[in-house]
Amino acid sequence: MKKLTLLLAFALLAGACSLFTVGADTETSTTGTSTTTTTLASTTTVLAGLPVELTDCSNPAEGFDVLCDTYRLLEEHYVDPLDDQALAAGAARGMEEYEPETTGPVPSGQVACALPAEAFEETCTVFAQVETTTAAPVADLIEAAVQGMIQYGLEDPHTVYLSPAALVHVAENQSGEVSGIGALVRGEDQTSPDEANCSVLSDTCILVIVDTLPDSPAKAQGVLAGDGIVVVDGEDVNGLTVDEVVERVRGPKGTDVDLGLLRDGQIVDVTITRAAVIVPVVASEMIEPGIGYVALSQFTNNSADQVHEALQSLVADGADRIIFDLRNNPGGSLTASVRIASEFLSDGMVLRTESPTETQEYAVEPGGAVTDPNIEVVVLVNRGSASASELVSAVLQERGRATIIGEPTFGKNTVQQRFEVSNGGALNISIARWVTPEGQDSGTIGVQPDIEPEIPEGATTDVVLEFALEFLRS
Questions:
Q1: Are residues 183 and 57 located together in one domain of the fold?
Q2: Which helix (DSSP H) or strand (DSSP E) does residue 259 occupy?
């Protein structure tokens, strides 16, 4: 059986992820430009023993545009109130932890620093300290500040900064074809009982191979699910984000990448030649007469059409029972999730999103392939089913349209929107939370299955799928 788990070609969308949901539930992109967030006459003060010119974001110091953009966009769009002190401390920590790859001459005179808000004077102090000791490129140092501001100041794994290079990879993911090794990865917190998602790699946050694509370079070189990527081209990945490691592992087809894989406590070295990899999104088949199976790996821009075609074909071939497999699906496009939920519903509302400024409702779209209530539907989920997967599962469960079988889902109910920033990168910002028509919020405990089959330790077969088949046969 050609059953998909979460098939991405060394891709993250996101963040996750959450599970790779850097852009999960990501909608349209808009451009950010610097605007005044606080009024501050240009002044010069001494910070870290160095004269520092302080300005506001109406006329930011060179290289600080992206910091000003980030603060303004968060202030305008983030789903929860901001803590300026926490954001400033996070930006400072990001710079303190930054290890520059290149340096220039150490500044001997005055440097300039922009304050998005008054609390950021702490950030400017650290900027002066780091700049006078490392002589790091200002643009790189401010990128580190933006990363730290988001990672430590928000503590929201779904709001992320994408560098210009990472943004290119996201666009590749959305196109359905990438150049890489053909593996699915996620950051896993090894100290968490349920291996929760994490985004900055360390001794306890490991970038784990979840699966490899069929006929992929990774599979051909013996890469295994459960391997941890700890070294890329001779460099330890600790301190890098998931995005940054993905960027390093990807590259032009025909080129090599050397990986150090953590396997059973030992480092295994492999060299993999990159290739163009088509990312499968939907797999379907008639498992047996009357029972059709559709697996969706991610809610991409074109996934709704693929799901519609697969369901329509199965129904035309006589399927009166459908298994819809969303296990290990991290989510994706909100628009796609509404269309895919509408494949099973004839009317009503799919969900509503709630932000600090507005509530928006999303109605069922007409023309679904499986709206006949006589067609029985089962949805398979597990702890890797996140975001849009939870949305679809929750509304179908609430409407009594499907039986949910498997494990409680991941527990993500935020919606992200992508905003460009001045350096060519972007921010994926949590702008709203979604709830079902009756107000169900799956953000903490996830979607609870109607039936949770017991999976024996060491099981060699797909116990949940076998259970679903028996359920539909009865």
A1: no
A2: strand 256-263
User: 264 and 299 in one domain?
Assistant: no
Of 325, 328, 316, nearest in space to 283 by CA: 325
Q: Are residues 256 and 291 in the same domain?
A: no
Contacts 24+ apart (CB under 8 A), 352-355: 352/434, 352/435, 352/437, 353/415, 353/432, 353/433, 353/434, 354/432, 354/433, 354/434, 354/435, 355/79, 355/431, 355/432, 355/433
Relative to beta strand 50-55, strand 111-114 is parallel
Strand pairing category for 291-296 and 414-420:
unpaired
Q: Which two tokens stand for residue 430?
A: 């949590």
Q: How confident is the model at residue 90 (pLDDT cuts 50, 70, 90)?
A: very high
Tell me, yes or no, whether 118 lies in a domain.
yes
Same domain, 193 and 263: yes
Task: Check: CB of residue 73 under 8 Å from CB of residue 429.
Answer: yes
Asked if 149 and 96 touch (Cβ cutoff 8 Å), the reply is: no
Tokens 């592992």 -> residue: 249
CA dist 423 → 72, 116, 130, 413 (Å): 15, 17, 21, 30
Helix then strand then coil, in percent of the chain rounded to 5, is 25, 30, 45
Domain that holds residue 271: 177-278
pLDDT digits (tens, 9 = 90+) for 385-439: 999 999 999 999 999 999 999 999 999 999 999 999 999 999 999 999 999 999 9
Q: Is residue 292, in this structure, part of any structural domain at all?
A: yes
Whether the CB-CB separation of 274 and 181 falls below 8 Å is answered with: yes
**Separation CA 428–CA 28 (nearest Å):** 10
End-to-end CA distance of the chain: 22
CA distance 378 to 397: 10
pLDDT, one tens digit per residue, over 277-293 is 866 689 999 999 999 99
Mean pLDDT, rounded, for 38-44: 60
Please state the separation of Cα 457 from the chain's center in Å.
30
Same domain, residue pair 258 and 204 = yes
Whether 88 shows a pLDDT value over 50: the answer reads yes
The pLDDT of 307-313, averaged and rounded, is 97
Please give the Cα distance from 293 to 314 (Å, whole number): 8
Judge whether 221 lies within some domain.
Answer: yes
Q: What's the average model confidence in pLDDT over 201-215?
A: 91
